[in-house]
Amino acid sequence: MKIPLRVTVNGVPREDLVEARTSLLTYLREQCDLTGTKRACEEGECGCCSVLLDGTQVTSCLVFAIEAQGKDVVTVEGLSEPLVLGSLQEAFAENGASQCGFCIPGMLMSATSLLERNGNPSEAEIRRAISGNLCRCTGYDRIVAAIAQAAERRRGAKG
């Protein structure tokens, strides 16, 4: 049985029908055609499917789509304008923080969540914020540097 779902995804209101057991990850990838949110462990362990749900970071593989009813979902595609990198994405590129790129959407979502809460995070706070995101290609140092650089730039832009 399909259930009506009204949700805003990356600023766009949507109305769709979803199966009760459809995960938010599956909904985003298959019905919204937003494939930046990665399907990996499907157990909430790797962070690749991280999105913001009403401003709170969640692993979308563990959330039913229907739990997003009436809420705002932001995916990695919603962090910037099409064909234009956001400041955080620029910092990742400049610091060589992306190797294979598979974990990067989740890392960007974790970093976004952190920077929205704390505009001047310490290295320890950055590492804690991305601790739920597994990366097999890097030693995390470049990712941490990129997040710190983005935070610094954002502070400079506000000041």
General shape: globular
Architecture per CATH nomenclature, i.e. the level-2 architecture of the largest domain = Roll
Structural class: alpha+beta
Sheet-strand content, in percent, reads: 15-25%
Poorly predicted segments: none
Number of domains: 2
As a percent range, the share of helical residues equals: 25-40%
CATH superfamily of the largest domain: Beta-grasp domain
Instruction: Strand order, main sheet: write it out.
Output: 2-1-5-3-4
* Tally of contiguous helical segments: 5
Instruction: Write down the oligomeric state.
Output: single chain
Mean pLDDT: 94
- CATH hierarchy class name of the largest domain: Alpha Beta
Distance between the termini: 53 Å
Secondary structure: elements and pairs:
Elements: E1 2-9, E2 12-19, H1 24-31, E3 50-53, E4 56-59, E5 72-74, H2 87-94, H3 104-117, H4 123-129, H5 141-158
Parallel strand pairs: 1-5
Antiparallel strand pairs: 1-2, 3-4, 3-5
Description:
The protein is an alpha+beta fold and 159 residues long. It has two domains: 2-79, Roll (Ubiquitin-like (UB roll)), CATH 3.10.20; 87-158, [2Fe-2S]-binding domain (DNA polymerase, domain 1, Orthogonal Bundle), CATH 1.10.150. The protein is 35% helix and 17% strand. The protein contains five helices and five strands. It has helices at 24-31, 87-94, 104-117, 123-129, 141-158; strands at residues 2-9, 12-19, 50-53, 56-59, 72-74. A five-stranded mixed sheet has the order 2-1-5-3-4, with helices on both faces. A hairpin with a 2-residue loop joins strand 1 and strand 2 (12-19). Helix 2 crosses helix 5. The chain is globular and about 50 Å long. The termini are far apart. The mean pLDDT is 94.
